[in-house]
Amino acid sequence: MSALLKKLTRFRAYQLGEIGSSFSYWDGSTFTLIEARVTDVSRGFRATVFHLGAIQRLNELGVLARLSTITSVSGGSILNGVLATRWSRLKLAADGRYSNLREEIGVPVRDFCAKDLRTPILVGTRLNPINWGELVRDGFSVSANFLADGYARLYDSSLADIPAPSSQVPRFIFCATNVRTGACWHFHAGPEARMGDFYTGYCDARWVRVSEAVAASSAFPPAFSAFRLRTPKDSSFSRDDPWGEFRVVSSKRSDEQHGVRNEPVFLTDGGIYDNLAVEPVWDRYRMLLVSDAGRPFQAVRRIGQALIPRLLRVAEISMEQVRAVRQRWLVADFQEKKRIGAIWTLHTRLEDFPITDARGYGKGARELLKRVRTDLDGFSDGEIACLENHGYSIADAALRSRAPGLCPKIKSAFEWPHEPWRDEEKLAKALAESARRRIARDAWRSFFTRP
């Protein structure tokens, strides 16, 4: 392990028109966790739960406690926020694994993903006359600031409340996209929290709520208009980035390199700029583990040639190529030994890993798992259990076959997070209708059947 120098571990999930999210990196004797995704309507629960399963297997293999940095974009930021706000509650056992991970991280994530977040925000906000002024201002789009209110029940901390990065605590970073500059805007948590982007500069972020950072990171248009981040009037922007390094002003866009003065910063989904969320750490780490919870880009038989469907399809193709190029870079680095690591996806076949004892779902079950909707509505117990099981099993096969040197506890027993749901007939029943979105039904339940 000590001979590996700089290494990077990461899980990624992203997909055009689908949810995504990602995780992880490692540096020397410690790791860096990263998550990222590109989705169509800021729906992140599928990826959140899939990666929850992967994180549990990371813990069992002795990897999780060695994280040095956790960065996130989009739906993956939901899980990152829970990790950041609850990391100090985790109990590290003598064997290098957290003994209460499932209780402190798994339980709140599952509970949150089981509740409908989408309908009260996207529908309820528009029906409330109190919000009509803001809605008119944004062309009747729901601002990501309302999404932050929804996340507030999961996170009650500010970025400054997160413990400082140390050998025991990773650095937590939430990435968004600055709509004005088109650059990656970073929120670095901790007592000395800072935020900013390369063109705007960097400033104090201790007052920013975790729920706000997660909302800015995960609000994908067109469902949400940009998050309006209003910095205090006395905010001072400088060229000192959150890592403590001085960033020289670029001569290419010098007209845009200035701090914000009494104007809100407009932030949208971090996956718009960098769907792999590697921007903050790309030059710092070498080993990379990629976990992709999105479906592959697919051909369509027919595509309407009216203005809106035509432009939407063009945007999808363009974003898919951005994703594909980044993935090719990663694979090329693996092949040329510039990086060390592995990649696994929601649709990866267990047979593709060079390992004889891989355990997981069969082909039919995996097909159903690929079709699970990507949304922020409430997921059923069965949907959550099956997705979590799948993330756990695929991560296990990838880590043990492609990156065994990163796993101090590589012989750790394989234990399904939800043993009853390993049965594929039971899975088939639970996921039979999981591809469908029932917005009308959810709206009825939300507003007319509440106790």
- C-alpha end-to-end distance: 55 Å
What's the order of the H and E elements? EEHEHHHHEHEEEEHEEEEHEHHHH
Unreliable segments (pLDDT under 50, ≥5 consecutive)? 1-43
The largest sheet is: 9 strands, mixed
Helix content: 25-40%
Overall mean pLDDT stands at 82
What is the approximate shape? globular
Tally of separate helices: 12
Rg result: 21 Å
The total of beta strands comes to: 13
Strand content is 5-15%
**Structural category:** alpha/beta
What does this structure look like?
It is a single chain. By secondary structure, this protein is α/β, with parallel strands linked by helices. Helices cover 33% and strands 13% of the residues. Helix 1 crosses helix 10, helix 2 crosses helix 3 and helix 2 runs antiparallel to helix 7. The longest helix is centred in the last third of the chain and has 29 residues. The radius of gyration is 21 Å and the shape is globular. The chain starts with 24 loop residues before the first strand and ends with a helix.
List keywords for this structure.
12 helices; globular; disordered N terminus; 451 residues; nine-stranded mixed beta sheet; 13 strands; 33% helix; 13% strand; alpha/beta; two-stranded parallel sheet
What is the element layout, followed by pairings?
Elements: E1 25-27, E2 30-35, H1 45-60, E3 67-72, H2 76-86, H3 101-113, H4 118-127, H5 132-137, E4 142-143, H6 144-151, E5 171-178, E6 184-188, E7 194-197, E8 201-204, H7 210-218, E9 224-225, E10 227-229, E11 265-269, E12 287-292, H8 307-335, E13 340-345, H9 363-370, H10 381-402, H11 424-430, H12 439-448
Helix pairs in contact: 1-2, 1-3, 1-10, 2-3, 2-7, 4-12, 6-7
